[in-house]
Amino acid sequence: MGNVAEHGLHVAFNAHLLSGKRGYRSAGVHQYIYHLLRHLEMADEEMDYTVLLGEGALPSGVSLAVRRSRWPTGRAAVRVVWEQVVQPVALRQIGADLVHGPAFVSPLMAPCPAVVTIHDLSFLRFPALFRPANRLYLTVLTQLSVRRAQRVIAVSAHAAAETTRLLNVPADRIDVVYHGVVPAFRPLPPDEVRAFCERSGLPARFVLFVGTLEPRKNLVRLVEAFARVRCEDVHLVLVGGRGWLYQDVLTRVSELELSDRVVFAGYVDDEVLPLWYNAATVLAYPSVYEGFGLPVLEALACGTPVLTSTLSSLPEAAGDAAMLVDPLDVDALAEGLQRLLTDAALRDDLRERGLIHASRFTWQRAAQETAQVYRRALAERRAGR
Q1: What is the C-alpha end-to-end distance of the chain, expressed in Å?
Q2: Selection from 49, 39, 47 nearest residue 12 by Cα
């Protein structure tokens, strides 16, 4: 390992989950890795980085050192073997002082201290919603990784509390580092938004959902609540790739005879996502469990009023700038949607609050706080803690 007294801290960053492919797998963790890599280099200029890459590519303009594996780690089983068998060898060869596992897992035999990021613990809270092999991998490797890690990053205070409660990680070993919002998420000129709606065939007024179609997003209840809204001109537009166990949503739309008012837009590229938020009358994000809930913050940054959940981390993402309701109560969801769709003064108030709240969350800040965690981890290891 390198000597910190002689040169900058050398951090190896496992970016094998960077996705170069269009689809739901390029959301979530990919975005976290992508935006951290864009800002880490400037967060602490005394640090050196080596990005461990598989099939993905560095963000444009990022000049960090890269060590690329020829292993096809886009395949989950291959990636598991690479993480635990090949990665420790690579860390030793490059002389890493620290390794960051940005998605739950670090190499258990790493020759240097590790920092691990926990995004959420849904695989422990809702095990039935995961495929058995994926659940087993996450459960076993996450528990072992956080036990070995020098520091753990949680993406919200809720995720930190869950990590202590479910994985027995002492609170003083956990650092909360919130996600950021990229500048592209902002209020756009009305003419540009109108032109986008015309090109896309979007209705004049619609409730938007953004996220992978999966059970914990609570979309069946959202569809049921939408069916009770007394605004016949309003549509529900679901933006996001089809993840897993999403068939119940399609079935419920058909049962409620809403096929002409509910639009499944599929996965949307990041470049145009701000236009979707700007075009929406309201964002509805009634998830029952989130590590952070970035779509809430993105919508607020675009000036879009938000209805979201009182559960998990979503009150942290929303602050005082959104309407919070019990996501398990279909009546409460319906009443919240009805009020937001019919009360222009409330929408204006939430729009102003949302812009202020969202401005506090930047990826520059997230990268700086992450770099501070790296230094804290190494200082603790050197002190024998």
Answers
A1: 18
A2: 49
Intervals of the chain under pLDDT 70 = 1-7, 19-27
Closest Cα to residue 371, out of 24, 97, 2?
Answer: 97
Q: Which CATH superfamily is domain 10-180+363-382 in?
A: Glycogen Phosphorylase B; (3.40.50.2000)
Domain-wise residue ranges, the chain: 10-180+363-382, 190-358
What per-residue confidence (pLDDT) applies to 55? 86
Contact of 145 with 101, CB cutoff 8 Å: yes
Cβ neighbours, 10 Å, residue 109 = 12
Are 115 and 11 in contact by the 8 Å Cβ rule? The answer is: no
- Bridge-partner residues for 53, per DSSP? 68
pLDDT computed for residue 242 by the predictor: 83
The secondary structure of 317-377 as a DSSP string is HHTTSSEEE-TT-HHHHHHHHHHHHH-HHHHHHHHHHHHHHHTT--HHHHHHHHHHHHHHH
Q: What is the pTM of this model?
A: 0.90
CATH superfamily of 190-358: Glycogen Phosphorylase B; (3.40.50.2000)
CATH topology match: 10-180+363-382 vs 190-358: yes
Q: Which pLDDT score is estimated for 21?
A: 53
